[in-house]
What we know:
The protein is of the alpha+beta class. It has one domain (3-90). Helix content is 70%, strand content 15%. The protein has 2 helices and 2 strands, in the order ββαα. It has a two-stranded antiparallel ribbon. A hairpin with a 2-residue loop joins β1 (3-9) and β2. α1 (22-42) packs across α2. The longest helix is centred in the last third of the chain and has 43 residues, at 48-90. The termini are far apart. The mean pLDDT is 95.
Amino acid sequence: MPRLVDVTICNAHYTIRTDADEAYIQSIARYVNTRIEEVQSKTKSVSTINVTILAALNIADELFCEKEKNRKYVKQIEDRSRHLIDMIEKHT
């Protein structure tokens, strides 16, 4: 059943309706805040929206890279599994 979880991101308060565990949502909010702070420390932009967009782009880049790594791992596992199946079939 969905519940409401309050989080603060970039000094703004949000109420999130979620089925996820509150600790998990808080962890995500902390991660987003950390990424925003990293961008703020490395950029001259004082615009909150610009910093937030840059942080979002960085997070999206991380996600895409992880998805690609996962795709490669799955392909490796499939290839190895196929090879093992072929070897087993040849010896039975």
